[in-house]
Each structure stands twice: as structure tokens, then as C-alpha cells.
Amino acid sequence: MKRVQVAIIGAGPSGLLLGHILHRAGIETIILENRSADYVLARVRAGLLEQGTTDLLRETGLGARLDREGLVHHGLSLAFDGELHRIDLTASSGKSVTIYGQTEVTHDLMDARAALGAPTIYEAQNVTPHDFDGTSPRVTYEKDGVTHEIACDFIAGCDGFHGVSRQSVPQAALTTYERVYPFGWLGILAEVPPADHELVYANSPRGFALCTMRSMTRSRYYVQCPIGDRIEDWSDQRFWDELRRRVDPQTAEKITTGPSFEKSIAPLRSFVAEPLRFGRLFLVGDAAHIVPPTGAKGLNLAVSDVRYLSEGIIEHYADKSAAGLDRYSARALNRIWKAVRFSWWMTTMLHRFPDATPFDQKIQEADLAYLVASQAAMTSLSENYVGLPH
Predict the structure, then answer these.
(1) What is the CATH number of the domain that holds 54?
(2) Which whole-number Å values give the CA distances from 20 to 25, 34, 260, 389, in the listed order?
(3) Which helix (H) or strand (E) holds 311?
(4) I need a labelling partner for 42 at 20 to 30 A (CA). Which of 149, 190, 264, 327 fits?
(5) Beta bridge partners of 220
(6) According to the model, what pLDDT value does residue 79 have?
(7) How many domains does the chain have?
(8) What separation, in Å, do the N-terminal and C-terminal C-alpha atoms of the chain show?
(9) Rg of the Cα trace of the chain?
(10) Is 258 in the same domain as 280?
(11) Are residues 144 and 62 part of one domain?
């Protein structure tokens, strides 16, 4: 039986970042991932990093390519009633955000782990945590038809919403909160310059739209769509026509069209599981919480979870203190719920709901009008958007 100090389930950004930070602190980890490395790198996910996220990446030696290729944004725009309203995030909060794809973060983390010689087992099947309610947890997995067992001090569940970590917790020990939204986001990637140098969030009678980018030559666009739509229902031409109808005329004129090379529909959901600790098993990132992408909080919340948990684990070994681990769940959930609230608010303000009454619609319009006319309201949005303090 192999033994490590921390077994990490999941090689997405949260698992890789946790392993990276712990390895730098001299703590031995192993990461188990049920997919291949190529599959993990091919997943198209978030692209906006809070300042707290970029600060942590730099602190841990992962900022070189981020600083070369990331696009720093100091503002965003809201489009509604045919007009474009810019909100200066930096003037309101003193902070900025950076466009740098989650795929790129994952790539940097994989490269760093390989350079350190730290083990990651890809295509590990039937990964299962055991005995985490006692003092001797272990994880089993199968690889090439052989069953392996790892003894450890702690298990970090970084394996996403559908992963085994949360499913291994007795249901009676979990409290879950969920809101499923009655629409999805149809997103495309295209090798075309973005319509604006900053993000444009649009509320229109036809539904929500978002203009964003991965670089100055690669654009990412989204439109709200019925939850039952299929990708086959949306040709590229239909998408571009619909996007132009939903944004303001100024932005519509600047949209450069081209063939998409990725197209997907993502359902929207708010979900939180409490607590985040079960003996010596800790839930991290999407294993514990999901937010709609409207507020760009998913990856950033995972990073703050990793910061809190890594601090607790390092304190355990360096100071023989359990205080940081004992505080992990409450500390992380305090920030999680604020981000869940912000993401819910952005979603309800910017989307058209199929069951909305005329009263609901008037309230939404008043919310938008108040936001762009009030410095206090713009400051509140800015503070949340760039990321609350870790």
C-alpha cells in the first residue's frame, strides 16, 4: 500500500492548484483523475480571473504566462434599451480582472506539476474514498485492471459536481441548497477579434447575451436559450443573427462573424452543499458548489477554497494545529454564499424568465436603470465582480 500525506481526487484546476501549493510546502500529494490528461485540457470552461486568483497564481510561481498573455480589464459594459453603459471596475473598487482561459490555467498547473515530479494518475477508474470518518483514511482506484490502495492523512475532493467525493458522504450528513434556472447558455468559440475590448452583458426582449473573448483574436459569445434546445438547432448563421439582435447597435456593428470551432449548451444552476468537511475528507470547488456563469465566480470560488484548505493543511503539519482545518468549512462557505448571491442577482437582472410577470419585468428594468445611475450601486457590483477579499 502506497502512503502520502494528502490524496487529491480530481485533476481540474482546484486539485492541481492544491497539489501545487502543498508540494511547494513540502507536503506529499498524489492526484487521481478518472479522465485522460488530453480530455481535461480539452474542456472549455471559464475565462475571467478575479484579482485574488491572479495574486495567488503569482504568489505560487504560476504567473509568468498569465502576465504575458492575460488581458487585464478595468471595466465592463451593460447593454439594454439599445444603449451601452460602461462600469469602471477599477475606479470603483481599486482592482481589475484578467481574461485568461481556465484551460490555460490548467495547462500551467499541469506543466508545473510535471516539472516538480509530483505524481498524477490519469484514467484512474473507480476511485473511492474510505474511512475518512476515522484517523486512517484511504483511497482505492483501478488502473489497467489492477486495484491500488493509498493510505493518507487527508482526502481532498476536487472532482466536480458529479464526482465521487460528495457522493461518498452519508446523505444525512449533508444539507444541499439548489436553484435550477429555466434556460441555458449557448456558447461558441470563434477565431475572430472580439466586438469590444471589454465584456458586454446584454439584456434584451429576446433574452440575455454576452460578448467576451479568450484573446484579441479569439472570441467567446453566449446567448440565452431554452433549456430544451439542442446544438443542432443552432447553425452558426442563426447564432450570429441572434447575437446581433440582442446587443446594442454600436456593439452589433463591431461583431466580426466566422465559423465556430466549439459550440455547447450549458444549463444554469445554483447549488451549495454544507458542510465542506466530513472527518478527514474536504470538499473543494464544484464538488461543493455551482454558480451560474453570469458572475464569473465558479473557478474563482474554487481557488479561494484551495487557499483556505491549503493554509489549514500547511498549519497542521507546520504547527501541529487543527485550527485552520477546523475553520475551513465555515470560512469557505462565508465567501461562497456571497458569490452565490451575486451570481443569482446578476442572473435575475440580465435574463428573461419565461414565467416573468409584467411586474417582474418592470422591476428588472428599474434595477438596471438604478444600477447605471448610482455610484453606490456600481461600486457594489464592482466589489463583487472583481472578487471579495480572500
Answers:
(1) 3.50.50.60
(2) 9, 19, 34, 22
(3) helix 298-319
(4) 149
(5) 189, 212
(6) 98
(7) 2
(8) 37
(9) 21
(10) no
(11) yes
Q: Is residue 79 part of a domain?
A: no
Length of the chain, please? 390
Q: How many CB atoms lie within 10 A of CB 275?
A: 17
What is the pTM for the complete model shown? 0.95
Instruction: Give yes or no for residue 348 having a pLDDT over 80.
Output: yes
Q: Give the tens place of pLDDT for each residue, 22-60.
A: 999 999 999 999 999 999 988 777 789 999 999 999 999
Q: Do 360 and 377 belong to one domain?
A: yes
Query: Left if phi > 0, otherwise alpha if psi is -120 to 50, otherwise beta: which for 238?
Result: alpha
Contact predicate 306/362, CB 8 Å = no
Which H or E run contains 253? Answer: helix 249-253
What b/e readout covers 37-51, taking b as 16+ CB neighbours within 10 angstroms?
eeebeeebbbbbbbb
Same domain, 189 and 169: no
- Give the residue numbers annotated as catalytic, written as ranges: 73, 201, 293, 297, 385
> Does residue 352 carry a pLDDT above 80?
yes
For residue 275, cis peptide bond before it (omega within 30 degrees of 0): yes
Evaluate whether residue 294 is within a structural domain: yes
- DSSP letters of 164-213? HHHHTS-GGG-EEEEEEEEEEEEEEEESS--SSSSEEEEEETTEEEEEEE
**pLDDT tens figures, 270-314:** 999 999 999 999 999 999 999 999 999 999 999 999 999 999 999
CA gap 98, 100 in Å, rounded: 6
Q: What is the pLDDT of residue 46?
A: 76
pLDDT tens for 194-249 read: 999 999 999 999 999 999 999 999 999 999 999 999 999 999 999 999 999 999 99
